[in-house]
Every structure is written in structure tokens, then in C-alpha cells.
Design a protein that fits this description.
By secondary structure, this protein is mainly alpha-helical. It has 8 helices and no strands. It has one domain: Glycerol uptake facilitator protein (Up-down Bundle), CATH 1.20.1080. α2 runs antiparallel to α3, α3 packs across α7 and α7 runs antiparallel to α8. The protein is globular, with a radius of gyration of 16 Å. The two termini are 23 Å apart.
Length: 176
């Protein structure tokens, strides 16, 4: 529903590869990223106001490693999850030769698959802005561990997205 406005950019791990591949200009991309982060914070504040008990019970839905999961595992899994998400986006929504009208379904399905596969391990973020809002608001509320491993939820999705954008370019050299 927002594709015609901004290309439906809700995720820095998608926007940064789009900037890298020159699918959008840098100035708009940076504006999108600031908007994405602000939206993540507003969503977390709204969550805190509606369900105050969730601030301490689940860090407002923050992405956190599963019990006993190392930061290295979180890094690798988030890279893989985001790689597949961004690869599907480039191959369905960006590729001009892709079948029209199916990109939303394909993107939605890869998100479902990624959540089922990675949710118990990492929380399946794939989106630094989605992770940022709950983490920063939980931190402001003084929740212990609110920023645990948060840097990984920035680094891994961006790496996964950039690798996917290069992979899509190689696969579709004459199509994008």
C-alpha cells in the first residue's frame, strides 16, 4: 500500500542495498532510514503505552538471542535471514522482468519462512529499525539487558542485505 509513495521502504537493511545499487538516491535513502528509525521508536512507545507490562516482561518485543545462543550464531543467522529477504525483494519487486503483482506475496512468504526458521534463535529481526525502537525505549525505561547484542541486529541485516544485492546483480545481470 505504500509502494507508490516510497517504494515501501520500511527497513534500513533493504534501503542501504538499494542505495548501494543506485535504485534510490542517497539523500532519499538517508531520509527513509531516519523515518524508519523514528517509526520504530513511535511503535515501541505506543506498545509501552498500550501494554505497560510488556516493558519488563519482554522488552517491548525486542529482538534478543535465544537462551544459550551465542552472538556469533545470531550474526550468522541474521545475515542468512536478511540475505533471503533482500534477495527476494530484488528478484521480485526490483527486477523489471519479474512477474508483475506477485512481489508482495513472495516477500510476505519469505518473511514467514524466515520467522519460522530464525525466530527461536534470534527473534528474526531482519530489520535494524524494528529492533532499534523496542531496544532504545526499553533502555530508556531502565530495563536491564535492553541493548544486549543490539549492535548485531544492525550489522548482520545490513551485511546480509548487501550480499543479497550483489548476488541479485550477478544472477540478473541483464535483467535489472
Amino acid at each position: 500500500s505504500f509502494g507508490h509513495v516510497s517504494g515501501a521502504h520500511f527497513n534500513p537493511a533493504v534501503t542501504i542495498p538499494m542505495i548501494y545499487r543506485k535504485q534510490i538516491d542517497t539523500q532519499n535513502g538517508i531520509a527513509y532510514i531516519f523515518s524508519q528509525l523514528a517509526a520504530g521508536v513511535v511503535a515501541a512507545i505506543t506498545h509501552a503505552l498500550i501494554l505497560p507490562s510488556s516493558i519488563t516482561s519482554n522488552h517491548l518485543g525486542s529482538n534478543l538471542p535465544g537462551v544459550g545462543i551465542s552472538d556469533a550464531t545470531v550474526l550468522i543467522v541474521e545475515i542468512i535471514l536478511t540475505f533471503f529477504l533482500v534477495l527476494v525483494i530484488f528478484n521480485t519487486a526490483v527486477n523489471k522482468k519479474a512477474t508483475a503483482g506477485w512481489h508482495g506475496f513472495a516477500i510476505g512468504m519469505i518473511i514467514v519462512i524466515d520467522i519460522l526458521a530464525g525466530g527461536p534463535i534470534t527473534g528474526a529481526s531482519m530489520n535494524p529499525a524494528r529492533s532499534f525502537g523496542p531496544a532504545i525505549i526499553s533502555y530508556i525505561y531502565g530495563v536491564e539487558g535492553a541493548l544486549q547484542s543490539h549492535h548485531i541486529y544492525w550489522i548482520a541485516p545490513i551485511i546480509g542485505g548487501l550480499i543479497a544485492s550483489v548476488t541479485a546483480k550477478i544472477i540478473n545481470e541483464d535483467k535489472i
